Amino acid sequence: MDTDQGNGARTRAEDASCARHPRQIGRCLRTTGLALTAMAFLLGGAIPTVAQSYRFSEFEVQGNTRIETASILSTLGVSPGESVTAAELNDGFQRLQRSGLFQNVEIVPQGGTLIVIVDEFPTVSQIAIEGNRRLSDEDLLTIVQSQPRRVYDPAQAERDAVAITEAYTQAGRLAATVQPKIIRRSDNRVDLVFEVAEGEVSEVERLSFVGNRAFSDRRLRRVLETTQAGLFRRLIGSDTFIADRIALDVRLLNDFYLSRGYADMEVLSVVPELVPSRDAYFLTFTIREGQQLRFGNIGVSATVPGIDLSEYRSEVQIDPGDLFNPQSLERTIQRLELLATRQGRTFIRVTPQIERNPRDLTLDVNFVIERGERVFVERIDIEGNSTTLDRVIRREFNTVEGDPFNPREIRAAAERIRALGYFSQAEVTTREGTTPEQVIVDVDVEEQPTGSLGLGANYSAEAGVGVALSFAETNFLGRGQTFNFTIDTGSESSNSQVLFVEPYFLNRDLALSFSVFYSESSRDSLSFDTRTAGFRTGLTFPAGEYSRLGFTYTYVNNKLTRRDDDEPLSPILEADAGEAVTSAAGYTYTYDTIGRGLDPTRGVRFRFAQEFAGVGGDEEFIKTTFLAAGQRRVRNDEIVLNATFEGGAITTLDDGASRQSTRFFNNQNIIRGFESGGIGPRDLNFDEDGAALGGNYFVAARLEAQFPLGFLPDEYGISGAAFLDAGSVWGLDDKMTTGPIPIDDDFFLNSAVGVGINWDTLIGPLRFNFTRAINKQSFDEEQNFDLTIQTRF
């Protein structure tokens, strides 16, 4: 047989085979393509015009049940009667394959008819997730992009599996695997199931530091957001490794060192090492501390004529010898620029010029007052806030449209927006406006939940076992308002309160508050019950950088009831039985730098308040209270020292007598080591231990040191405390009694020493106090042990 004839016979045979077995069209097209390519090669490309072409007058589509025939032919791109080459036919074949609608596509030329055979992807009937315990179906299904009643796409299912795996990675389970599977149903439907093997949590097994000399590993661990897993991790809890949190940890370390004078500190590297079992990490921070620097000479100069430098020097609150702190510089610059604004000077910029003195490790700072560029704020654009109103964000800016542009003020506004707690992310950037002399401030925020519903349990030796229900919303209706509702019940008392706060009343930095409260007390140690109901409203506004002044009005209905008519009651308490209304106006001044001042290692808190009763009601008195407290961190912040001194006095008017509901009673917030009402005036003629009467005056001093327990790893969350409390409750307007034992209301200084254990557990913070009275009267009631626990679910 002639060679050409043999080849032709084989080609005709293969064409016939393709017609008999249409599912082999892919091989058929490939065979045709190879034959044409070989022919072109043998003939040297001399006959490209004789490439095989087809002309179809009819089309037959097989296998489609949901996809319309016209839609398939449109995607194929072949028209009846038109000549089409094998390459063009292959292009149409590829388009059908890439459409994502078919598992398999075959095209079979058969004379003047083109047969298109499709195998449609099934429809997803339902989507399920199996094997997940740590992450809920609701959370994971929000990640899945495949949807019921849509065409099943294997590629999309694989992408969904990767997304679920990534969610487990973020939760610290790097060993988690996700496998998408389908279950065939009738009518070309499938159930899509993601089978999850969660694996174990990848914890931070060891968190260590290299290069730290000034601060121990224990102290630096408390700085980081990441924590180290402990030996009793199942009970105490541990932290998972999250790679995205490393950047935050680096920033926290930098801020910690900078605020303590280490201006040259650097985090050289952070190395996470995954153990072979993939369930734990060794995380190592390599740092270079540098040297601790202090401020040297502080000066103020100006390049702007007409400035009285003495006024500006008085605004500088940095003293030579203070630890270098970038916040000190920033706040001083703000004060100087604010003074310039108050003097009517615009576009004033203050630039700190810093000169290092290597010999004595100080930094000389000269604040230069100079004229800045004339740039104005064209507008402020806010995006990303779907719930929070624009005005809630805009009021954090001291700058409005048309004001001179101050970059430092814009950065400060960004920090205030982040401090609101309403947003998971808040970015404030600037860009050029419609002219070079104008800028546009862009605020891009990402909202986060601001409400919480809590169910809790608590216990204390004083109040017994109790439960608590609370609802709190700090961004009520997106207006930046606070709404709280709490119910707290114990075995001997119950309290409930509704609180509403509008932080920007009348569009000013003026906080308007209103609360309604109700409480009942029925203590076994007392022979009477009390009930209190009332409301309080107030206005608070800033009086300085760290101080606030508030005015309040309070209306309270108090009731004291004898528990048993046959049980004797002190005449002083008998006189207080029944209902009485207290209507009082007052004010409170507070100054607080603890955790907020320029020096993070120390701070003070001062509070002074007075309440004037007699604006209506049944009582007339002046009630004065004060508190002075200080905090200091020593030994490289390892030990926290707290000192508190407070007191109060009630001055009755018109020769009246104070009531039980108004007088001061001891509790654990005054001095520890004694029961509630365990010190102070007592009528020993009544009750087994004498009736606690309270007093018109009290003073208390509390000294406490909190320190780590060196024999326990810091990650357990257990620390120790030692304290000394001293105080007194004394003074009555009337000491009448019907018994033989006189009432002693003289000043007597009670005191007690104790140790405490603080344990931060998964179920909540625990505080154990062990105390012993060192100075007491014979009738005082001690409390040598106190346990307080509170947990919310």
Automatic annotation (TrEMBL):
Signal peptide: none
Source species, domain of life: Bacteria
Ranges where the POTRA domain occurs: 54-121, 122-199, 375-448
Subcellular location as annotated: Cell outer membrane; Membrane
GO cellular component, one term: cell outer membrane
Primary localization: membrane
Keyword Transmembrane: yes
Database matches in InterPro entries: Bac_surfAg_D15, BamA/TamA_POTRA, D15-like, OM_assembly_BamA, POTRA
UniProt function note: Part of the outer membrane protein assembly complex, which is involved in assembly and insertion of beta-barrel proteins into the outer membrane.
Family: Belongs to the BamA family.
Quaternary structure and interacting proteins, as annotated: Part of the Bam complex.
Name this protein carries in UniProt: Outer membrane protein assembly factor BamA
Lineage of the organism: Bacteria, Pseudomonadati, Pseudomonadota, Alphaproteobacteria, Rhodobacterales
Name of the encoding gene: bamA
